[in-house]
Amino acid sequence: MSFEEEWADLKADAAARMQLNQVPTYDPDTSPTGADFVVHDDELGKIGHFAFVLHNNLKADGAHAQTTSRAAGTSLTSDGFETGKALTSAARVWGKQVGALLDACAHISNHLDYSQASKKKDDEWIAAQVSVSKISGYFEVPDGNATRPLPRPEGPVI
After folding, report:
1. Stretch 110-116: mean pLDDT
2. Residue 92's pLDDT is what?
3. Rounded to whole angstroms, how far apart are CA atoms 50 and 109?
């Protein structure tokens, strides 16, 4: 067997085994509709709540650590220790990193709150549209160019 034939056989064999769309799913929480990404409202709420709690705790604890480190750095610098400058610099960097984490937590919490509200609003809009389409199926509604009058209700008018 030549190299080209062996190479072609190996590629065909690999291609046959790499049919990813044929692989069965083992996810126990798959959607009944076959959707590959499912998020439940209670999961979004938990994640958003944890991000909010983390934000609040980090804001207080991060500021405390920065304030204490900066005070120690200033005290050591005034006493003539070179370590004080390094500690003050570390406190400054710490403050920037805590700020970045605070921004990320706030972004996560706010985005999940927005996503929940937006999803609810979309669901309400869709429900209203479905209701309207069901109701409009019972009426003869002429288009703008029609000259026929609307049908009158039959039977006694109360």
Report:
1. 76
2. 92
3. 8
